[in-house]
Amino acid sequence: MSRTARATTGAIFGYVKFAVSIVTGLWLVPFTLHHVSSRLYGFWLASGELLAYAALTEFGVLVTVPWIIAEADGAGDRDRMRSVVTTGVAAAFISSAGTAVIIAGLIAALPSIIHLEGFERSAVLGPVLVIAAAGIFVHPLRVFYSVLAGLQDVRFIGAIDLLSVVLSVATTVGCLRAGLGLYALALGVALPQLVVSLINLLRVGSIAPDLLRHWRRPPWADVRALFKEGSGAWMGGWGWRLINATDGLVLAALGQPTAVTALACTAKLSNALVQLSWVPCDSGLIGLANLAGEKQDARLRETIIVMVRVYMAFAGAAACVVLAVNPAFVSRWVGGQLFAGGKANALLALIGLVMTFAHALAVVSSVLGHRLQIGMATLFAGVVHVVVAFALGRWLGILGVLLASVVSHGIVFPVLLWRPFSNATRMRETTLLREVLQPWAIRFLPLVVIAIAIEQVVGVPTVPVTVALGGLVAVASMWYMGPLYLQFGPVRAMYDRLFARWVRTGA
Question: Which pTM value belongs to this model?
Answer without folding.
Answer: 0.69
